[in-house]
Amino acid sequence: MNDNRLLACARLVRGSRAADVGTDHGYLPMYLVQNGICESALACDINEKPLASARENIEKAGLSDKIGVYLSDGLGSVPCEGITDVIVAGMGGELIADIISRANWIKQRRVNLVLQPMTKWDHLREFLYTGGFEVTSELPCQEGKFVYSVMQAAYTGTKPPYDCDLRYLYCGIVTPDTEAGRAYYLRQAQRLEAVGRGLLHAPDGSAAAQEHLALAQKLRELVL
Ligand SMILES: C[S@@+](CC[C@H](N)C(=O)[O-])C[C@H]1O[C@@H](n2cnc3c(N)ncnc32)[C@H](O)[C@@H]1O
Description:
The chain is of the alpha/beta class and about 220 residues long. It has nine helices and seven strands.
């Protein structure tokens, strides 16, 4: 597996049995088991076609005894016994939040979550914050011309030790001390500027516009 985004997900796995929700090809659970990061894993997908490809890849690699394959909407049809980590990567932030919110056992067992939203990261971060999940680590990564952030979170049931402000919604706990971190800040600054410019034309939007534009400038200064 040579995808920086999926490798970053693998780096945030902590336990012995990970469920990869929306596994598609199954490469991530295969990598986790092949590299001794997990003893066993679950490859789950809502669609038959990607699941068939995951099953074929897992069989070819001789890993069928260690990786179970599940046709499931989110975690709905997945046996939760022994699962230490849940990975949901490559989907929109709203769908990821929905999948997490429908599996209450994640809270009860304080499962390690590894979440990589393609869009709507602000929605996901707000969902985590208001739902009592603390983001404990965040790994920015670059794949080709795209930059992503992978979040590690766990349920604590208490208010996280940071504010749910605009900076958290856009950058989470990413820091600009790596090349990928700086690239993430610059990308989020562009997004803040686009939203801020749009808000300038909205009725009563000027305070929010200034807040977006000021944060964009601050992120750029932090990268310099
Ligand atoms: C873009 S692929 C991402 C694959 C891989 N996780 C990655 O990050 O490269 C999204 C996968 O999620 C699956 N998916 C979408 N909605 C889902 C849901 N509600 N439950 C489980 N899988 C879902 C799709 O069938 C697809 O295989």
